[in-house]
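LAB NOTEBOOK - FOLDING QUEUE
OPERATOR: T.R.
BATCH SIZE: 2
PURPOSE: Compare the predicted structure-token outputs for two unrelated chains run back to back under identical settings.
PRIORITY: normal
REVIEWER: second-year student, initials M.K.

ITEM 1
FIELD SEQUENCE / FIELD STRUCTURE:
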Amino acid sequence: MEVREHLSLDDKESVYYVKRMRYINSQVLCIEESYYNKTIIPYLNVEIAEHSIFDYCKTALKLNISFSDKYIHVIKLNKDESDLLELKEGDPGLLIDELFYLSSGEAFDFSKKIYHYVNSQFFLQSTKIYS
């Protein structure tokens, strides 16, 4: 299973699954599906998920979230995705698979975000291009 591989889980370990819709200026921005390793995040409820899960991890659990790896793909939306994003089936979407790590290097969150192709824009900055 993709999630097990990304989070390096054995057969006895489980995850919390959180699916959320993200909005910007009252417009649909993206569908977010996240899987949190229960060994590292021992408790998660709806109230926490309705706010910032990362704030909870930092404040309540004292975790040091350090970095992430992003894998970016352009996809065609299926029926469920297009309905949620208020688009047509087959429209393009930007899929970002992201794996979040603690400062120890241990992965604790695998997230998939599918962005609305009209309502989203991104800024990427590069430093030290050539030295």
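ITEM 2
FIELD SEQUENCE / FIELD STRUCTURE:
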Amino acid sequence: MEKTTICIIDDHKIVRHGLKELLQKMGRYSVDLEFENGAEFLSALPLGNAPQLFILDYSMPVMNGIEVLQALEERDEEYRVLLLTQHFDEDIIDAAYHHGARGFLHKNCTAAELQFAIENILTIGYNNITEILKRVRHYNSGRNERSINIVLSGREADFLKLVCDERELTYDQMADIMNVSVKSIEAYRTALFERYNIKSKVGLVLFSFRHKLTPPFT
């Protein structure tokens, strides 16, 4: 069985070692990369053979986990990030999801909870999409977002619908479904990013959620 590749970003060597040992004992995962802080991780991007999942610590020197997520929002590549922390702070959780984290776990979680979160992110795209949407809605409540006139072409609407599909489709798969080239998919994405100041694929899902543009939000 082909193993899922994982990268761990944590400033404590003993935590990285213990987490790596735990994951590899599960038999499904291979920890291929480790970084001791967020700045070191970001300086290594883009990765030639990127892992399928990134486990990111919140409390690190130089850059904390939220700052790393914010930096990843500026990049074209997609990163599935599971944030781990000892600080079960509501504001941190809300900010993590707002900036693209696919899941959030306390470091006191059990091995079963960790594996459950990883498998949800890999198969569905998020550990708990219902909680994420609820928290993002809460994060944005009270903020005076300017009213915008949303205009989508037919192809852009089709693209956005596929982005929000529960199957967590890749851009290659979207291109096949829409019978267009990957470059066309990238053009739809870039147009929406620039027009509505969106930074990531997760941002596209949240954009659709906020404005009730596509299933399952309509």
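REVIEWER COMMENT (ITEM 2): The CA atoms of residues 23 and 29 lie 6 Å apart.
FOLLOW-UP: none requested
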